[in-house]
Write a structure and sequence with these properties.
By secondary structure, the chain is of the alpha+beta class. It is built from five helices and ten strands; from the N terminus they run H-E-H-E-H-E-E-E-H-E-E-E-E-E-H. A five-stranded mixed sheet has the order 1-2-3-4-5. It has a five-stranded antiparallel sheet with strand order 6-7-8-9-10, covered by helices on one side. The longest helix is centred in the last third of the chain and has 11 residues. The chain is globular and about 50 Å long.
Length: 181
């Protein structure tokens, strides 16, 4: 399922910007993208296709996740010239609002960060009952009982690295800021 932060839908509606989400864009042809690549489009696409779309985007700003690892690899033609950037869906709103000139403190409305000016080299999100911590090289999944698994981001294999409890504690505090008791 494509996760869309409510703030993105509000931005699109309030600024009259076309908005669309696509669960699986793997088989959509070039004509679809030429006709529909306007406004805000959030879609899951295979890595090869993402790179093709970015190379033909012209002056259209695109941010997209790889369908193979949507929580960790985002690609864009405006951020790092299409180079992979550690990000999650939570980073879309702060990045778009930054592009629109918003100067509000990101911590007041999001757990994400502006990808043009990242403030940390890790990101955290949730998936079901798990907290997911992403670093440059690893994905750490922690369940509600405190059990954890650590995976290598390059090949997805589980490894036996030691858990960085200090970083995990900071990440949990960060993602918990908007949760009411």
């Amino acid at each position: 399922m494509v996760t869309v932060p409510p703030l993105i839908a509000d931005i699109a509606r309030n600024f009259n910007v076309p908005f669309m989400t696509i669960e699986s864009a793997e088989f959509l042809g070039d004509s679809f993208w030429q006709e529909n690549l306007a406004g805000i489009v959030i879609a899951k696409v295979p890595l090869k296709r993402a790179r093709e779309l970015l190379s033909h985007a012209g002056d259209t700003a695109i941010m997209m996740a790889s369908a193979h690892n949507p929580a960790g690899n985002w690609y864009s033609n405006v951020i790092s010239n299409g180079v992979s950037t550690l990000a999650t869906a939570e980073d879309i709103a702060p990045t778009l609002l930054g592009l629109m000139g918003c100067s509000a403190n990101i911590a007041d409305y999001s757990t994400g960060q502006n990808l043009f000016a990242p403030s940390r080299n890790w990101t955290v999100t949730t998936a079901g009952d798990k907290v997911i911590l992403l670093t440059e090289h690893e994905r750490v999944e922690v369940d509600v009982l405190g059990n954890y698994k650590i995976f290598d981001l390059t090949d997805g294999t589980e490894n036996s690295s030691e858990l960085n409890t200090s970083l995990l504690s900071r990440a949990v505090k960060h993602v918990s800021r908007f949760i009411q008791n």
